[in-house]
Amino acid sequence: MEIGLIGLGKMGGNMRERLRRAGHTVIGYDRNHEIADVGSLTELVDAFTSSPRVVWVMVPAGDPTRDTVKELGELLSDGDVVVDGGNSRFTDDKINADHLAEKGIGYVDAGVSGGIWGLKNGYALMVGGSPENVAKVQPFFEALKPEGDYGYVHAGPVGAGHFAKMVHNGIEYGMMQAYAEGYELLTAAAVVEDVPGVLKSWQEGTVVRSWLLDLLVNALQEDPNLDDIKGYVNDSGEGRWTIEEAINHAVPVPVLAASLFARFSSRQDDSPAMKAVAALRNQFGGHATTKAGQAATAADLGGPGDTIDS
Fold first, then answer.
1. Does the annotation count 172 as an active-site position?
2. Is residue 108 within 8 Å of 121, Cβ to Cβ?
3. Compositional bias (Low complexity) spans (predicted)?
């Protein structure tokens, strides 16, 4: 079968290859013409030899995706389907779907997880859309998902796929933060001499084993002290949207919220908030403050035996 794929970056390029290995014909377009199969969206749509046409969009969320969907709306025909496989906010999906529906074009939102490992392992797919439109894309979902019974769900109507992926990524934030905090505590304790070995020992037989743990072990094998990595962490949006939706639905998500705020803290070389905390401790308790550029002393650090309020 034929499918158009727009956006051939780290994930899109591997998805093209996985689809081709499954026997599908993929017509790929990217702004980088060196990796594209065609030079424009018009050429992509014209290259199809059968219908209905399915075009999968893998470009950055926001305006790039919205603009691409609008352009496809002018090029595709009644019965064709557009799949948004990027990390769009689920609230964009109904807008895109309604715009395309005016022209008889279907719309499916697909949350895609798997990163750079998806080519080998397959991609977990969370899909939203009408049964009719999802059915038109189903052969491609089957090619992209992992082998076996898991890794794919038709989560509900338009928007459900991206909502599910948003929550997935919010959980991912929390899990990564938990591993990171455990790693830091292990490195802080002099009694543990082989921190990478401890984490590696958790990979089998423990309740905390996971793919994320495997990836942390891989990272430590390459750089045992993570000396080549700066502790600065961006967020791509899904974590923020998860917290906003938790507020909208009055659902408590303290772990997910804390993990997002920890990323914000990572971007501060010298946190203004913690400066204020240090100043307040000094004011009410006479606790010592550490000057900029000065290392903290044991007395500065205090401890559980400190009788003054902390």
1. yes
2. no
3. 289-301
pTM comes to 0.88
Where would I find the H helices in the chain? 10-21, 41-46, 63-75, 90-101, 118-121, 131-144, 160-188, 195-201, 211-222, 238-248, 254-266, 272-285, 298-301
> What structural domains and CATH numbers belong to the chain?
2-157 (3.40.50.720), 166-266 (1.10.1040.10)
Reduced to 3 states (helix: H, G, I; strand: E, B; else coil), residue 78 is coil
Helix (H/G/I), strand (E/B), else coil: 98: helix
46 has a pLDDT exceeding 90: yes
Tell me if residue 17 is catalytic. Answer: no
Radius of gyration (C-alpha) of the chain in whole angstroms: 24
Q: How far is CA 22 from CA 38, 140, 272, in A?
A: 21, 9, 53
Among 274, 264, 268, residue whose Cα is nearest residue 177? 264
What's the pLDDT score for residue 234?
A: 87
Residue 164 identity (one-letter amino acid)? A
Q: What is the mean pLDDT of residues 23-40?
A: 97
Burial state string for 215-235 with b = 16 or more CB within 10 A and e = fewer than 16: ebbeebeeeeeeeeeeeebee
Q: Which residues pair with 27 in a beta bridge?
A: 4
Marked catalytic residue, from 136, 165, 238, 245: 165
